[in-house]
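Input chain follows. Return structure tokens only.
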Amino acid sequence: MQHLKYFSLKILIFFTLMLKNVYQEELKRYRHEFVNLKIEANTVAAKWSITPEFSKTRQRKIKRHFDELCEDERLQDPESLFKVNISN
């Protein structure tokens, strides 16, 4: 009976890792095909009579120290913010 539990656990782990790899590859493909996905989303939005626009959020104020560099800038464009959030 213990052998069956061990065997079924190994199978479960194997399929979980296999699914993880499949989804990881799919996410990589989405990252590289962002322009095509946007065109497809605009087509679907036009078919459903929805305005294809990204929601705009208020820019948060962040206190900065006098010697802090400006390298940590927030993205202003909602489309580029979406692209960065999806690819990370």
